[in-house]
Amino acid sequence: MQTATVPFRAPAPIPHTKPLGFAGFVWTASRNPIEIWGSRAFKEPWLRANWLSVPTIIVNDPKAIRALLVDNARNYAMQPLRQRVLRPMLRDGLLTAEGELWKRTRKSLAPVFTPRNIHALAPAMAERSRLFAEGLESLPDGRADIAFQMTLLTYDILQATLFSNDITGEPKEFAEAMELFLKRMGRVDPLDILDAPAFLPRIGRLLGQRSTNYFRGVIAGTMERRRRLMETDPQAAPNDFLTMLLKAEGLSASEIEDNIITFIGAGHETTARALGWTLYLLSQAPEEREKVEAEIDALLPGLPDPATWLDSLHHTRAAFEEAMRLYPPAPSLNRTALEADRVGDMDIPAGASVLVMPWLVHRHELLWENPLDFVPSRFLPGNRESIDRFQYLPFGVGPRVCIGSSFAMQEGVIALALLMRRLRFDYVGEKPPYPVQKITVQPRGGLPMRVSRR
Ligand code: HEM
């Protein structure tokens, strides 16, 4: 008789049971914000706190999330902390834009992200993933930090889909400058948490100005060269994001530049994290991994068009979605209430900080059965329909929902299919990876894995 195996319990900080105190709070929030949550945060529909004198409401109830982020979204602005951290880097890009600028930019960008356009990028995603899998096969000792490797892969895919690898700078120098830029972006300065005035220098932010200038310079040069090509020989211009953006109506050159940088900032590390965590979780759940491998082996030969994989590879997609439930790459949606509001039994004062945390909602005891376990079947057709739209939020919800979600989903499934068709990934770290929230949720110390040919 076969016994059902116990699902894998995904490693996470153990919720504390005693208050952290002021110093402990600031220290934890600047080191690893997902450690600030006590056990109540995973049980209650909502919580109220007074953080650094700001009334703060943490909302877990799907109905209330809908009321805040959809029905009355206009009353909830992006939080100043996030803007302060990201705006110097992303400037007028969609993620950091507000008010009229946001509205106009979202309208201009919407036609770029149509299903047709995203499908058109699938062959480039597949080509880069295939080449990447080949490269991983010839690692000198068969081992690699897969967390880092996935950032290389998603960088490669972004380069191919944004610019068709046609940039004006040296590829290696550009990649290094981008890495420094993203590192700066991810650094939350304790001064930001304490709400210090903007004129106080943030040491982390001062580093790497030169590389940012270089990075922006290459993007501006690449745009200019493409614009000239589109004027002189439109047929020769590749059908990538850059061409689509240059054709979009209503955006100035500097706004296009800001949005390209925003796509890199918002789409590179997030997708890499989701891929890394999926490969890790599957390595710890061999039965689930077998289902994914069997599906890929059975279906890929009959599906030449990679744009169809997202809707056909159910187990692969379910594993990816379940990994984003347990380790949401963007673990917090932070807003500030512009005016006082009442939602259910919650009184929200004007100026309150309102937090919808996928990290909490996705692990909430009232919303999920065995919330800490890796159970991809939750997301298989037939089960997935019973998941409330407002209890699963890896891409957010409402007017500011991730504009790149279909790009990321398509990329995730294509990359997993092509990596796992060829290779098997086994975690070889001495200890389980420990999740740390920087801007994304990342494994401290990486994901050391043995990569072998299947
Ligand atoms: C697994 C990958 C990804 C995850 C988990 C993710 C997650 C999110 C989330 C949660 C938001 C909403 C933030 C909020 O409401 O506060 C968001 C917004 C955004 N994302 Fe993504 N994202 C991913 C990939 C991408 C990609 C590939 C792109 C671009 C190509 C992208 C571009 C954006 C932009 C521009 C916004 C701002 C939208 C707006 O404010 O109108 N993201 N993302």
Automatic annotation (TrEMBL):
Any idea which UniProt keywords this protein has?
Heme, Iron, Metal-binding, Monooxygenase, Oxidoreductase
Q: Is Metal-binding one of the keywords?
A: yes
Keyword Hydrolase in the entry? The reply is no
Instruction: Write down the PANTHER family for this protein, in alphabetical order.
Output: BIFUNCTIONAL ALBAFLAVENONE MONOOXYGENASE_TERPENE SYNTHASE, CYTOCHROME P450 FAMILY 4
Family membership: Belongs to the cytochrome P450 family.
Q: Can you name this protein? A: Cytochrome P450
Q: Name its species.
A: Aureimonas populi
